[in-house]
Description:
This protein has helices at about 45-65, 85-105, 110-120, 165-175, 180-190, 210-225, 230-235, 235-260, 275-290, 300, 305-320, and strands at about 5-10, 15-20, 25-35, 75-80, 105-110, 130-135, 140-150, 150-155, 265-270, 295. By secondary structure, the protein is an alpha/beta fold. The strands form two sheets. The protein has a five-stranded mixed β-sheet with strand order 3-2-1-4-5, with helices on both faces. Bound molecules: 5'-O-[(R)-(carboxyoxy)(hydroxy)phosphoryl]adenosine (KG4) and zinc ion. Its cofactor is Fe(2+).
Amino acid sequence: SADIKILAIESSCDETSAAIAVNGKVLNNIIATQSVHENYGGVVPELASRAHQLNIVPVVDQALKGANIDKNELSAVAFTRGPGLMGALLVGASFAKATALALDIPLIEVNHMQAHILAHFIDDPKPKFPFLCLTVSGGHTQIVLVKDFLEMEVVGETQDDAVGEAFDKAAKMLGLGYPGGPMVDRLAQKGNPMRFEFPKTEMPGLSYSFSGIKTGILYFLRDELKKDEKFIEDNMNDLCASIQHTLVSMLLQKLRKAARQYKVDQIAIAGGVSANSGLRNALNDLATQENWQVYIPAFEYCTDNAGMIAMAGHFKYQKQEFVDQSISALPRMKF
Ligand code: KG4
Ligand code: ZN
C-alpha cells in the first residue's frame, strides 16, 4: 500500500525507545527507562550502552506488536544519530542500519534536538510557523526559531550546563535523589520563592549560563551550614522554591527577548524540564502578558522518546531524505 510506516529508534541517553508512525500518526511509543543509574547520581555511559543492548530487541518487538504491524510492512527505519552519548547512540544506529539492510528499506538519520521540537506535531494543537521552541532538558537548553518542519535555527543556547543539570545538581546539594528536578518541583510548591536570592549570570544576547548559579548555591549552603547545621532540612521547601524561581526566570527572560526580537507569538516548550510546574505557571502568566499562544506536548513526548523520532522520520521520508550504510553516530551533532 502507499501508507508510510516508519519504525523509529531512540537511544541517545538513558531511555531505550521504539515507536511506529503510520502516515505521520504515532501509534505506539515504547520507552524502557534505565533504573541502573539511580545508584550513581547520574547517567553512567558504559551502563547505558549495556542496558540499550539488552532492551533494544524487546522494545522494538513490543512497538511493532502494539501497533499490529509486521516488520515486512515497514517503509523505512529512522534512528537518533546524535547528539548524545557515543556508546548509547551506537546501539541504536547499528540496530537501525542492520534492520534497514535486512528488510531492504531506506534508512533515515534524525537529529535528537530537532525531534524534540517535532514532538509538537504528534498531537493537537499544533504550533503554526514560524514559532520559537525552548528546549530544556538534562542535556540541552536552546531557543530555536522553527520556520518549517525541517528548517530550524538555534538562536540562543547555554554556553555551559543545561538547565536540567542545574536542577539536578542543586537537588544533589540539598541531599535529594537523582534525577532531582521533579523532587525540587514538588517541594517548591510548598515553599516561598522569594525567600532566598541567588546570583544570576548575565549573558549577552540570547545565551544562557547555568554553571555560575550552581557554584552560587554551593557557597551559599556552605556558609549557612557553618552557622546552622540543620539549615537545609529546616528550609528545604523555601530553598527549592527559590532555586526553581531563579532558574525559571532566567529561562523566561531570554525567551521573551527572543520572541520580541523575532516578532513571534507562537511559543513552544520541549524537553524534560518542560514538566516543571513553576515553569509552566510562569510561562502561562507571561503568555497572557505578551499575547502568546503556548504549546506544551504531553509529558510522554517531552522526555526522551522514539515517538518524536518517528515524527521526524515521517517528515524526512516525505522529502526522501535517506542515508546509506556508511552513516555513523554523531555525539556532538549540530542542527
Ligand atoms: O528530556 P529528558 O528526559 O532527558 C534529557 O536530558 O534529554 O530530561 C531530563 C531532565 C532531568 O534533568 C530532570 O531532572 C528534568 O529533566 N526534569 C525536571 C522535571 N521533570 C524532569 N526538572 C524540573 N522539574 C521537573 N518537574
Ligand atoms: Zn532529549
